[in-house]
Amino acid sequence: MITDILCSSFAVALENAKNYEVTKIQSERCSLTNLYNYRYFESMLNDEFEKVHHFEREMLSLILLDIDHFKAVNDTYGHQSGNEILCELADRLKKMVAGRGTVARFGGEEFVVLLPNMNKTDAYETAELIRQSIANWPFSLYQALNQENKQMQVRITASIGVATAPEDAEDALALVRHADRALYVGAKRAGRNRVAEYSSC
Questions:
Q1: Would you indicate the residue range of the signal peptide (predicted)?
Q2: Which residue from 12, 64, 117, 164 has the least number of CB within 10 angstroms?
Q3: Which one of the listed residues 48, 84, 88, 109 is annotated catalytic?
Q4: Are residues 40 and 15 in the same domain?
Q5: What CATH number corresponds to the domain at position 81?
């Protein structure tokens, strides 16, 4: 009887632990791309910025990426195809960044890459490699509208902004804001499909 009670208690504890892990993953991950979500990214960004302030990190770079004309993709091929592109892009970003940083879905068609101890020059080069990998290799669609389930290839581009702390920002919010400014002013307004770094000038 004691063995049965202990086994039952152990089974309940295991099930609770499993449910906790599932809930934790769901709260940290984007359900579509399986990347970290904005909530997790924000927490990690604040933690990394604290390390910069306490000289545990020399620098912290941030890449903010936005797919160009993504609404047109959804309108032309359907939202399911748009989701396919988001998932494939998420996989490409994870492979390219690998162990050098953290990739998260920032929201909609925006993604963010956090790169601890990477200077702006290296972050810019990483962003340019990401831009080229998006522009030069088509994305595969399997569920496009009116395609009778035939695979098709679609080309897209992305605009990217880069900012680095502490040279560009004194707090986490400013780092995101400055990468966003580089993205929209330096890349989008300049013609899209390009990388821009933040400049205070």
A1: none
A2: 12
A3: 109
A4: no
A5: 3.30.70.270
